[in-house]
Design brief:
This protein is α/β, with parallel strands linked by helices and 277 residues long. The protein contains nine helices and eleven strands.
Length: 277
């Protein structure tokens, strides 16, 4: 039996949140980047014009996980307007699908067209090592929680943005991989037997977010790019016990190349938007 839940937030609550933000901000960018666990360093590098803590926004579900600050930052990267969402909510926090995708639905209301979803993941593919970047091409829904009826028919990740990211990475000299993301509920890490099964299903990395948001963003008409940072090897692949501390330590070590790659991708996306006007 499929686990099908209501994915959409209450429209009145969304409108109230939208009106609150519009009362603070005059104009809005068309690009947004979501920062996953331990990836908050990027937010410190933008030139902010205005920031809002998520608990100030009406009805906005507040993240509770360490490493997810819960903030919306309006600013510029290399003079390119961007909206940074620092921190996200997860299904394992007791949130509903409508809550964990609330911010995506809000971004759509604010006019975001290009969405970059980043996350910290465990590496399953034996070629991956902590510190590697993976551009997501598709997903496996290990939770069997269906976001929309028929949502499995097509990958939510944009082929044009995948190719753009690969081209940009080549230009910066930063090595990237591409692969399939497996969504698990968490918050516990997977067992070695589960990782073996997930690998046999074809996944390269495993994590506890991103898939619901990517599907919702795609449904709402956004172009979606998924970038995973491998912060640990999955259970059964690594002999080291898994921990959230390891995730943050690897993210700290890789923060500069991550920012270089993200900045370059944002510049290229903005250039394409400008060229198409």
């Amino acid at each position: 039996m499929k686990n099908l839940q209501k994915p959409f937030a209450d429209q009145n609550k969304l409108k109230e949140a939208e009106n609150f933000i519009r009362s603070k901000i005059g104009s809005f960018p068309s690009i947004s980047i979501i920062l996953g666990s331990g990836l908050g360093y990027f937010a410190d590098k933008i030139v902010p014009s205005f920031s809002i803590f998520s608990n100030e926004i009406p009805w906005y579900p507040e993240p509770t996980v360490e490493g997810h600050k819960g903030k919306l930052i309006f600013g510029k990267v290399d003079n390119i307007p961007i909206l940074v969402v620092q921190g996200r909510s997860h299904y394992y926090e007791g949130k509903s699908l409508s809550e964990i995708t609330f911010y995506v639905q809000l971004l759509a209301k604010l006019g975001i067209k290009k969405l970059i979803l980043t996350n910290a993941v465990g590496g399953i593919n034996p070629e991956l090592r902590p510190g590697d970047f993976v551009i997501l091409t598709d997903y496996i829904n290990f939770t069997q929680i269906e976001i929309f009826p028929g949502s499995k028919k097509k990958s939510p990740f944009s082929n044009s943005l995948i190719n753009l990211a690969k081209r940009v990475a080549l230009g910066t000299g930063i090595k990237i991989h591409q692969g399939i993301y497996c969504w698990t509920i968490g918050p516990s890490y997977e067992t070695p037997s589960e990782i073996k099964l997930i690998h046999e299903l074809g996944a390269d990395v495993v994590g506890m977010s991103t898939v619901p948001e990517a599907i919702m963003a795609f449904y709402l008409g956004m172009n979606v790019l998924g970038i995973s940072l491998v912060t640990n090897l999955a259970a059964g692949i690594s002999e080291i016990p898994l921990s959230h501390k390891e995730v943050q330590e690897v993210a700290e070590r890789i923060k500069k190349p991550y920012s270089v790659l993200s900045n370059a991708i944002i510049r290229e996306i903005a250039s394409n938007i400008s060229d198409n006007k």
